[in-house]
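Predict the 3D structure for this chain.
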Amino acid sequence: MKKKEKKDLPSDFIKFLGTGGARFVVSKQLRASGGIWLSYQGTQVIIDPGPGALVKALSGRPKLDPAQLDGIILTHRHLDHASDVNIMIEAMTKGGFQKKGTLFVPADALDHDPVILRYIRSYVAHIELLQEKKSYHLGPIHFSTPVRHNHPVETYGLNFFFSQGTLSLIADTLFFPQLTNHYQADCLIINVVRLKAISDKVIYHLCLDDAKKIIARIKPAKALLTHFGMTMLQAKPWKLAEELSRLTGVEVIACSDGMTLSLESLLI
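Done. Predicted structure below.
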């Protein structure tokens, strides 16, 4: 039997441990929901470790070792973004025996209907509260939370500043006109839950038309779509991305579970 070749990860990369969003896709695991793993100059961070984050990290090829994490970022406290935060803290700190790492969270993830267990909080070396228009550092990783999003709980998107360029994540939100002013990025990740808006109901998530508007206004070099709900999956996200590329003139990619992309390829 031919031995499988070991697949090496790029030195600086992002890996999607899941691209599912909204309650039905996540509860049925039609797409995984483990969040995004970011590695930059040896520093490891996981963003929004939702259901299955630990399993997806350890079952990947090659696997990602949560004990090597230096930090965890929650854009907000909803379960599809935060359900595995406690076990990831346990894994990062080797069960609390190695006090380390920084947890970046909105205040209401700790104080109002908290998602981080109180006994777990002592395991991490630092807890930093995310706030609007603030900047943060974790080793060589520098990021900011430029604006509070329009979402039922305290929610922030992220701007990462690397030597190669800027990578932004527009987390869950209802579209508002000023949104695009805060994410002038070389590469833009957008959580696109719905195919279409619902005329008689406010859904606090972006739809495909919102994504089109955002991409056309910001004009990043690349745009990555993720966090798909049922209507997006039924419409085949990869085909929708091809159409958005044609309409906006921007390279648009529909992310898939396990997709790994080097920062160099995203930010050139």
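The first helix runs from residue 23 to 28.
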